Amino acid sequence: MKRWLLSYDDKLPVSNIDPCLFYIFIPSVLIIFVYFHVDNFLVITSSEEWQQQFFADFNQTYPCVDEGTLTEILGIRMVFRDTGLLRECRMHQEGFIHRMLDRYGMAECNPSPTPMEPKLVLTPADPQEPTSGRPYANLAMELMWLARCTRPDIMTAVCYLARFMHCHTEVHWQHLLRVLRYLKGTVGSLVRLNGSTVMYSSRLQKTVALSTADAELVALSETAQDIEHLIHLISEFAPVQLPVVLHGNNHASVLQAEGALNNTATRHITVRDRYVAKLVELGRVIIAKVPSAQNLANFFTKSLAANRFHLLRSIVLRYFQGTVG
Ligand SMILES: *[C@@H]1O[C@H](CO)[C@@H](O)[C@H](O)[C@H]1NC(C)=O
Ligand SMILES: *[C@@H]1O[C@H](CO)[C@@H](O)[C@H](O)[C@H]1NC(C)=O
Ligand SMILES: *[C@@H]1O[C@H](CO)[C@@H](O)[C@H](O)[C@H]1NC(C)=O
Questions:
Q1: Where are the transmembrane segments (predicted)?
Q2: What's the gap in Å between 260 CA and the centre of ligand 3?
Q3: Ligand 3 atom closest to the CA of 262, numbered from 1
């Protein structure tokens, strides 16, 4: 099929960044073709005419069925709505959440205001003790899937609790159930494709850092790598406005990222961890310092008290909606 696509009309090139992505530009019309499974594919186009011709041609070699407008992909429900200028795309997994609540006997539970207790610190279970016998890993993986797709608001809690996959007790399990109780009390996130945040991340650092500034420099560099990837991918379709603004809240790390600090105290930082400095030098990224209290990244990295959590959540969701208000 790949060969067929590549030769179609002599002009359906594959993306340099993602081998499952094909796209074509016809003046002022963008057509994107993605296949992600041997027998499943998705066509995004602003030209109905092109689409019909393409389906007809494709159908001759690969008999297929047009299932109409996308309503669900990989378990994520898509709801399209025209709002004048923009076509809004709302993605949610409410059905998935309901089924999960049922399966874990939580359909009638009391909702929780946040996914995680503020400043929660759990210790791994003693390896000699039997584990709780609960389907901890299953629930953690399902929640992780949800967090990655449409619920960034549970990412911090789930990443933290997932560390106890192999060493959990009833206490850990109850904390995992709290995430479900939180989901019960909330509605799904709204995600807009055009002009919105399309990626977020929250993860344990890969390198052990010696100071807070170093830790943040490493984090900025890891994020910068993700940003580079996105810049490359998006540039294939549309010009990306450079530089991209990256927010940090540690003054020393911001200076370091900008290359202003270059003394012996920071020599232990490897070239890879200075990646962000490289991008700053190339003018692809600029670093902006944000006060800790306003740093949206805290939403993804810290367990917050309910009022801070709700404030940052409303700001983050507004980012995801792509508009303010
Ligand atoms: C492909 O051809 C078959 C048989 O004519 C038809 O039933 C089907 O709807 C066609 N699929 C598309 C996507 O046009
Ligand atoms: C996003 O929407 C605006 C219209 O509000 C449009 O001008 C712009 O080209 C769109 N961007 C992309 C990448 O489609
Ligand atoms: C930092 O030090 C390295 C090695 O000594 C040098 O090559 C580089 O130019 C310095 N950078 C700045 C911004 O001073």
A1: 20-38
A2: 9
A3: 1
| Residue span of the structural domain in which 237 resides | 212-290
Same domain flag for 64 and 98: no
Looking at the structure, do residues 115 and 178 belong to the same domain, yes or no? yes
Ligand lying closest to the C-alpha of residue 51: 1
- Is residue 323 included in any domain, yes or no? no
Return the pLDDT at 140. 96
How many domains, the chain?
Answer: 3
236-253: per-residue pLDDT in tens?
Answer: 777 777 777 776 666 666
Provide the pLDDT for residue 325.
Answer: 27
Nearest-CA neighbor of 181 among 108, 93, 120, 121? 108
